[in-house]
Amino acid sequence: MCRQRLSTHADGKIIYELKQPLQDGTTHVVFTPQDFIARLAALVPRPRVNLTRYHGVFAPNSPLRKAIVPGASQATSAAVGSVPANATTNPSD
């Protein structure tokens, strides 16, 4: 939402100018302050909710997910296997 396209009318209503006219020729939308806040609040995501939703084979409960996404056990074993045997954890030794 662009603040440059927002304005207020003398009676307190909020006027929003559309980027492009609608098919019926509408160029502005008029809201009451309560209606504008309600529509604006509907755009704000709820707290602690992921914005990315997976469906199909990427869904968490999909039976085909194991064939597509590598599991944690595969990722852990690959990471452990890539460390050389003579590597040390403390570089000052």
Structure description:
The protein is α+β, with helices and mostly antiparallel strands. The protein has a domain at 3-42. Helices cover 26% and strands 12% of the residues. It has three helices and three strands. The protein has helices at residues 33-42, 65-68, 72-81; strands at residues 6-8, 14-17, 28-31. Strands 1-2-3 form a three-stranded antiparallel β-sheet. β1 and β2 form a beta hairpin. The model has no long low-confidence stretch (mean pLDDT 81).
Task: Write a short abstract of this structure.
The chain has three helices and three strands. With 93 residues, it is an alpha+beta fold.
Q: How is the largest sheet built, in terms of strand order?
A: 1-2-3
How far is the first residue's CA from the last residue's CA?
Answer: 58 Å
Give the count of helical stretches.
3
Rg for CA atoms: 27 Å
Beta strand %:
5-15%
Shape descriptor reads elongated
- The ordered H/E elements are EEEHHH
Tell how many strands the DSSP assignment holds: 3
For the report, how would you describe the main beta sheet? 3 strands, antiparallel
The percentage helix is: 25-40%
Main structural class: alpha+beta
Kindly report the average pLDDT value. 81
Point out poorly predicted stretches. Answer: none
